[in-house]
Amino acid sequence: MLNAVLISTYDSGRQPFSLGSAAAWLKRVGAAVTCVDLAVEQLCQDAFRQADLIALSLPMHTATRLATGLIEKSRRENPAAHICVFGLYAAINESYLRKLGAHSVLGGEFEAGLAALAERLMAERPMAGAGGNGGGPQREPLISLARQKFLPPERSLLPPLEKYAHLQTASGEQRTVGYVEASRGCKHLCRHCPVVPVYQGVFRVVQKEVVLEDLRRQVAAGARHISFGDPDFFNGPAHGLGIVEALHGEFPELTYDVTIKVEHLLRQRRHLPLLRDTGCLFVTSAVESVDNRVLELLAKGHTREDFAELVRLFRRIGLQLSPTFVTFTPWTTLEGYIELLETLSSLELIDQVAPVQYAIRLLITAGSKLLELAETRAIIKDFDEGELVYPWVHPDARVDRLFQQVSAALQEGQSLGESRREIFARIARLAYAARGDADGMRPACTAQGMLPPAVFVPYLTEPWYC
Ligand code: SF4
């Protein structure tokens, strides 16, 4: 039997779908599987040292940076193991990960490739035992966009849901959160998005019956809120809506949240009441900027005016919007940053924005479509393998300084337990000071007493970021 250890280093506070799904596929081909989520538990050294296959899930930038040390540790402490990295960031960082010691790199719809690799390793084990890592040159596709027939993830091998982020409700209650994916990839080509270099404008669905079975198991394990991790829940609206209707039919008390782009929300506005009526507590939407030039460079497919329209639409319908931003880009001006804060204040959105959003700095990753732009090539430095990005410096030193100040203010505000409004006010004061405004000139959004009454917005205790 092949001993496989599947490792996740970080998945934004969610019980990792990728690990559960990989475990189900490996068990089906006869491997003995151990899962370790280092975000919430310790690595079992014995299992690690005895593993024939060590497979690391790399769905995001932070996870990949954390995993690089583990590849080196595997080489050192279990040199006979076959090391596989899989997920979105595995494919885009292939050459660096191979240099570190990864033998197989699987991106996109990775499960079938991982299962095929395990079967090959089992077939070749006598040879691997004679000194190699088994498997020979990789035969599985680096990026698979195959339409897989999914299996319900093997979540019994993962830490319990209580160990992960919770939903904070208005009543002060914390609800256990389950995490599912009903689709992967995306049919859009936003330039800054890490999904694009891998999926190149296509998305793949997880079959409805598989998603529903996964949901039932998580409800049985205690989930009272479900977070859908699809890059965009409305890439296939009929698929997504069919799932939430069935979910609501079976579990009418269950709430959920989804991520949908501005363009889809406006175009599919007729479906928004259905989201509201089936228990959708909030919709995360990557607004990114209120500067139309930046939105154009990112190829977001919406404008600042669309965003304002969306805010009004959500209020009319009674749905909660949770906008996210890339607040610091090489094209963000000091005026533009202040304009964002003032827009959020005038649209009465301060309570709806997680403070971490004010300090998100654009990551230019390997394979990013941003590299196609002369505007990007003019400001980036050579690829930094340690950081897994093309570093950039803002042409206006005041903006980079403000980023540092905002990051520090955010940390301080959070460590003091300040409200979203208090943190916003701190950050607004910094932004106006960076522009050189005198205290008396600063507008109402920097002063607590001058804002409309606060509204509580439900949120996950670990905010989304890349
Ligand atoms: S819509 Fe969202 S997931 Fe799709 S390419 Fe754009 S940023 Fe990425």
Output the keywords.
466 residues, alpha/beta, Rossmann fold, pyruvate-formate lyase- activating enzyme, 2 domains, seven-stranded mixed β-sheet, six-stranded parallel β-sheet, 18 helices
What do these coordinates show?
It is a single chain. With 466 residues, the chain is an alpha/beta fold. Helices cover 39% and strands 15% of the residues. It has two domains: 142 residues, Rossmann fold (3-Layer(aba) Sandwich); 301 residues, tm_1862 like domain (pyruvate-formate lyase- activating enzyme). It contains 18 helices and 15 strands. The strands form three sheets. A seven-stranded mixed beta sheet has the order 14-13-12-11-8-7-15. It has a six-stranded parallel beta sheet with strand order 2-1-3-4-5-6, sandwiched between helices. Helix 9 runs parallel beside helix 10 and helix 15 packs antiparallel against helix 18. Bound molecules: iron/sulfur cluster. The site of iron/sulfur cluster has 10 residues, from loops.
Reconstruct the topology from this structure:
Layout: E1 3-8, H1 17-28, E2 32-37, H2 45-50, E3 53-57, H3 61-77, E4 82-86, H4 88-92, H5 94-100, E5 104-108, H6 111-123, H7 125-129, E6 143-144, E7 166-168, E8 174-180, E9 183-185, H8 196-199, E10 203-205, H9 208-220, E11 225-228, H10 237-250, E12 255-259, H11 262-267, H12 272-277, E13 280-288, H13 292-297, H14 304-317, E14 321-325, H15 334-346, H16 374-377, H17 397-415, H18 420-435, E15 459-460
Parallel strand pairs: 1-2, 1-3, 3-4, 4-5, 5-6, 8-11, 11-12, 12-13, 13-14
Antiparallel strand pairs: 7-8, 7-15, 9-10
Helix pairs in contact: 1-6, 9-10, 15-18, 17-18
The structure holds iron/sulfur cluster.
